[in-house]
Amino acid sequence: MTTTIRTRPILTLTPFTLWVGSLLVALLAGLFAMARVLVNGLQVTGLSDLVPWGLWITLDLSAIALGAGAFTFSAAVYLFRIHRLEPLARPAVFIGFLGYTSAMLALAMDIGRPDRFYHPLIYWNVHSVLWEITWCVVLYSTVLVIEVFPVVAESRFFERWPWVRTFAHRVHSLTPLLAVLGMGLSLLHQSSLGATYGVLSSRAIWFKPSLPILFIISAVAGGMALTLLATIISSKLLHTDLIPTEIKREVARAIGYTTLAYLYIKLWDWAATSYYSHAPGTASTLQRLEATTPYTTTFWGIEIILAGIVPAVILLYRPLRRNDRALMIALGLICLGVVVNRWNVTLSGLVVPPDWSPGMLGDVVATSYFPTFTEILVAVGIVAYALLGFTLGVRYLPLYPRHPQT
Fold first, then answer.
1. Is this prediction's pTM over 0.90?
2. 123: CB partners within 8 A, 6+ apart
């Protein structure tokens, strides 16, 4: 008589494991590309002295902007006492943490010498906007780590160490103070990122005082949009409502009004610099951009229409706002608009060099830049890290009050 022994598979190929596995593969590919950059330097990239900022800085600016939901919801709940938004505060802070750590990974690759990352903290250059941004990002990232710690401590992993949860509870009592610090630091560096470009008188297309305001408003809209989009998608995949429906619609409406405010200022900014007035430097730059790049198409087609007007209509028109599919499309378009805007701002003033730029012959319309395969792999790895972090966070951390921890 023979007996059959049934063995259980070590790993069941569920959609979750396939998703996590694909993210791990992308993350490993990104780590390999990062190692190649550290060994060979920035020569493996498409960056040059004429175009020193490219895909990685775009990723950095986008990650910071889309992580702005952290300070927005924290300030709303703990500073302005809008407690009904509390279900979104934790996931927003967690997304902010992932966004800022992603930005730091991109910066570590972009600066070429990541071993010298601490230099701005020791060698102060108070006349540099980038120096102020460095300090704000470091301090705000520290605030995010402190805010995320109580969430991690409440996971089942720390049940065996009750003192950790006790300490985390005491840390959580500092949340109102952290919300004030976080809002101040985040507002400072979100605006300073725009000022980094806006104070460059040598780059005519950037030189204007409106960029800090535009960066803040777009970050608030993009940060809230990503937090709500991630929440809705998680709700669909988990087959449960992670937040109350009325909160979802209220936040969607607020995002719609924020998008309108951004569009209003952005269109007046365009009119003031490119329609009613024609400064020689700006006009020349725009003319050369239109001749050699899809800047005009991406500006009007994506930033204004597809990522501005369309989502604003969906979010402010009640029947569409109540449709989850339309809502997710609108939120996704806003996130796309933030990324495209950061790409346009990063490259628009660089690919068109000034006529007096050293090494230029005076007749160069635009310089060329396209990210190399190594740059793309690094970016893919960083995005995979953020997606993997949020996936595991939703599954194993108490990010949402309505979702039982597994």
1. yes
2. none
**Do residues 315 and 330 lie in contact, with contact meaning Cβ atoms separated by under 8 Å?**
yes
CB count within 10 Å of CB 160 equals 7
Torsions phi, psi of 65, nearest 5?
-65, -45
Q: Are 164 and 91 in contact (CB under 8 A)?
A: no
What is 73-109 written as a DSSP string? HHIIIIIS--GGGGGGHHHHHHHHHHHHHHHHHHHHH
Distance (Å) of CA 204 to CA 87, 130, 143, 228, 353: 44, 19, 36, 37, 10
pLDDT tens digits in sequence order for the chain, 406 residues long: 555 555 555 556 788 999 999 999 999 999 999 999 999 999 999 998 888 899 999 999 999 999 999 989 998 998 888 999 999 999 999 999 999 999 999 999 998 888 888 898 999 998 888 899 999 989 999 999 999 999 999 888 888 888 888 898 898 888 888 888 988 898 888 889 999 888 887 788 888 889 999 999 999 999 999 999 999 999 999 999 999 999 999 999 999 999 999 999 999 999 988 888 777 778 888 888 888 888 889 999 999 999 999 999 999 999 999 999 999 999 999 999 999 999 999 888 888 777 666 555 555 677 888 999 999 999 999 999 999 999 999 999 999 986 554 4
Say which CATH superfamily domain 31-359+371-396 falls into.
Formate dehydrogenase/DMSO reductase domain (1.20.1630.10)
Distance (Å, whole) CA 33 – CA 36: 5
What phi-psi label fits residue 100: left (phi over 0), alpha (psi between -120 and 50 degrees) or beta?
alpha
Residue closest to 199 by CA, chosen among 117, 127, 299, 270: 127
* Residue whose entry in the numeric block shows the structure tokens 């969430």: 151
Tokens, residue 16: 């979750």
Torsion of Cα atoms, 8 then 10 then 11 then 12, to 10°: 0
Of 217, 297, 295, nearest to 263 (Cα)?
217
Q: Cα separation of 110 and 207, whole Å?
A: 24
CA distance 170 to 168: 5
Please identify which residue in the block is written with the tokens 């949860």: 165
**Cβ neighbourhood burial of 213 (10 Å; 0-12, 13-18, 19+):** middle
